[in-house]
Amino acid sequence: MKPLSILLCALLFSINSFANGLEVTEQHVRATPPHTKNTAAFLQLTNSTDKDIKLIAASSDIAERVELHSHINEDGMMKMRQVEAILVAKKSNTLLQPGGYHVMFLGLKQDLKEGESVKFTLYFDNGDEIKIDAPVKKIKMMQNK
């Protein structure tokens, strides 16, 4: 019975990261120093369908607001900006990563420590919703040499 229970749990987890030709992999959330009010989630979206799909929103109960963001170069400065949607082109991958697109958690209700996990939901323009359970990880910032 034990191997069957493990298999069922694994299947449930895979259902939570896959919906109608959309798959989420490499999901993780940045750990926060004490009393930090914002953090971000990073992941890879794979669209195996014949139609472009847009990620249009995200939600979670760990923060007051959850937004989709990107970094842009404005007047020689990198700035973070909210975006209305993130395109996941047909038959391709879109990477949400530091310095690019990401899911932003604003007004955190608690500190996030490495080893914990964060639950959040992604919403797409085709009506799909994908529930994510992402591990919290320390992410090293890139340093200029």
Q: What features would you describe in this structure?
A:
The protein has 145 residues and is mainly beta. It has one domain: PCu(A)C copper chaperone (Immunoglobulin-like). The chain has one helix and eleven strands, in the order αβββββββββββ. The protein has one helix spanning 2-16, and strands at 18-19, 22-30, 38-47, 53-59, 63-74, 77-82, 86-88, 92-96, 102-108, 117-124, 129-137. Strands 1, 2, 3, 4, 5, 6, 7, 8, 9, 10 and 11 form an eleven-stranded mixed sheet that branches. The longest helix has 15 residues, at 2-16. The protein is globular.
Give a topology summary.
Layout: H1 2-16, E1 18-19, E2 22-30, E3 38-47, E4 53-59, E5 63-74, E6 77-82, E7 86-88, E8 92-96, E9 102-108, E10 117-124, E11 129-137
Parallel strand pairs: 2-11
Antiparallel strand pairs: 1-2, 2-3, 3-8, 3-9, 4-7, 4-10, 5-6, 5-9, 10-11
List keywords for this structure.
single chain; 145 residues; mainly beta; Immunoglobulin-like
In a few lines, what is going on in this structure?
This protein is mainly beta and 145 residues long. It is built from one helix and eleven strands; from the N terminus they run αβββββββββββ.
